Fold Putative ABC transporter, ATP-binding protein.
Amino acid sequence: MSGLHRVAQNVHEVNQAVAPDDPDLVVAAEGVDVVREGKHLLRDISWRVELDERWVVLGPNGAGKTTLLHLAAGRAHPTKGAVYVLGERIGRVDMHELRTRIGLSTAALAERVPPGELVRDVVVTASWSVVGRFNESYDPMDEARAAELLDEWGMAGLAQRQYGTLSEGERKRTQIARALMTDPELLLLDEPAAGLDLGGREDLVARLSELAADPDAPALVLVTHHVEEIPPSFTHALLLREGGIVAAGPIPETITSDNLSATFGLALEVTSVEGRFTARAR
Ligand SMILES: Nc1ncnc2c1ncn2[C@@H]1O[C@H](COP(=O)(O)OP(=O)(O)OP(=O)(O)O)[C@@H](O)[C@H]1O
């Protein structure tokens, strides 16, 4: 096949791959490469997320998980292929408008929160897509929504505390409440359990599982290194290694010893009990 034909076919496949009238399709990536400074961060990624799906993205350090999350958030552009998020093609739309429809929680965003910011304000400022309260005035409905989310995430008693005084678990819950502030259609969480102790991790996994089981919750994508952090109500998994997909699909078929061994490059034995997974070297 000539190069021109191949390009034409790619364009055709991308257009075919995305049904703009499918309201349930939240993320659609087809044949996506991301290249930065001559390095392939992602290679030939084709992935679809539907509204009622809850995805976990697993892989070792440097596999490209955060890059994939940034694509889904519209904060990175593909070098090749096309990414559609909430029906809009990344790179062809006003990203500011799209971003209010996407909740994102990452360590990089969390680091931008001023330590003196009140917990209540960390959450409510998401309605203006800003970090750090300045002179904006907030609708009482926004204030009420922030209070409701803090309550749901077990932070009601700490709403008046300074963010910098919170424990890591409390910070993580505040960040998720903030990411939910705009009632997003897509919620993206990058390693929400990183740095938590066992009790904190179990508490967060249970809360995320409850969120995932809610039919009114947004589509969810959670990035992690550890199968132990997969909330039981999550439905799908995508395994990444060196920028490429090792396996993707429903969790029971995807989180297997063979797939996980290929993803992490070592022989692993995966076991599951009541929807919770553990992995150990064979
Ligand atoms: N702008 C860039 N230029 C060159 N390389 C980059 C750039 N951004 C990221 N990388 C590299 O791309 C690879 C994938 O990064 P990414 O952060 O997506 O991985 P990750 O799976 O989230 O890793 P971790 O689990 O360690 O957070 C890493 O090797 C990283 O160093």
Notes: The chain has ten helices and twelve strands. Residues 102-183 form a domain with the Rossmann fold fold (CATH 3.40.50.300). Residues 1-19 have pLDDT under 50 and may be disordered.
